[in-house]
Fold:
Amino acid sequence: MIAVVQFGGSNCDRDAVRALTDLGFEAERVWHEDPLPEETTGIMLPGGFSYGDYLRGGAMAARSPVMNAVREAIEDGIPVLGVCNGAQVGCEAGLTPGAFTTNASARFQCEHVYLRVENADTRWTSAYDEGDVIELPIAHGEGRFEIDDEGYEELEADDRILFRYCDEDGNVTDEANPNGSRGNVAGILGDTESVAVLMPHPERASLPELGSTDGRGILSGFEG
Structure:
């Protein structure tokens, strides 16, 4: 069972459950003050505006009681995926390096973007080939990925960058970078392949009626 953690201010938890169940997973929302169900086989930290992004996106949710259980689950090999606000929570909680901060435009942005698959040899990207271009929506005001030089070099050396923002043809350019993220980074792995965060929303591109199913491959990573 995939536990979709619901914080105060989450607004993509129902979307996530719907997308996961459509893929054949058993999924349910779990309130952040409650324990994770014993049958938990995966954890998703969904998008939204936990605690109204007070202080900064994800900062308060990262200190919620459930995050201790999430860390313990990671130690047991249970996969964890953070999306949008969930990606901010993941970075703030130290599950992944770097930070997501205010967009270069200093404005909230809601649009479709293209991503190039940088590493297809992970549970989250095995449905694609390296270099594939997929289209997902974004909806964030603090989506700019930042990390120091040493951290960025480590991500590249360890092949932990999953996706970069690109144009329709797969070219990674400044113009294709919607928020100013360093190196056009849109998604990364944590210390282990079981943990990943990304700013675009795969659950919003998972059903045919939404106009795209490009995100299904990412969510299928819960299968291993």
